[in-house]
């Protein structure tokens, strides 16, 4: 999913602006990267359910009817198909 990587990138890249020396900058980046590693290592157990859903959730809109996508594949299309199956 794109969302988590985007979140990770945004947070880590911000750290490159913190600090006045290369050592300070890398130290700040390492702290942020370690935070993300800890989430991976403990499989999100330290997070509340809402925090975890925010990190792994993805917000997408489909601009056309499901049938209009034909044989295309995407997470949005798969999710829509599975939701439709559940609702029948």
What does this entry look like structurally?
With 88 residues, the protein is mainly α. The chain has two domains: 2-56, no CATH class; 62-88, no CATH class. It contains four helices and no strands. The protein is elongated. The protein starts with a helix and ends with a helix. The mean pLDDT is 79.
Number of strands: 0
Distance between the amino and carboxyl termini = 27 Å
What assembly state would you assign to the polypeptide chains in this entry? single chain
The helical percent reads 55-70%
Shape: elongated
Cofactor: [4Fe-4S] cluster
GO molecular function: 4 iron, 4 sulfur cluster binding; DNA binding; DNA-directed DNA polymerase activity; single-stranded DNA 3'-5' DNA exonuclease activity; zinc ion binding
Subcellular location: Nucleus
Enzyme class: transferase
């Amino acid at each position: 999913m794109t969302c988590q990587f985007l979140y990770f990138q945004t947070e880590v890249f911000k750290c490159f602006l913190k600090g006045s020396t290369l050592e300070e900058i890398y130290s700040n980046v390492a702290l942020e990267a370690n935070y993300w590693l800890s989430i991976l290592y403990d499989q999100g157990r330290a997070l509340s359910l809402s925090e975890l859903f925010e990190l792994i959730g993805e917000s997408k809109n489909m601009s056309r009817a499901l049938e209009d996508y034909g044989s295309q594949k995407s997470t949005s299309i798969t999710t829509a198909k599975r939701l439709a199956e559940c609702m029948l």
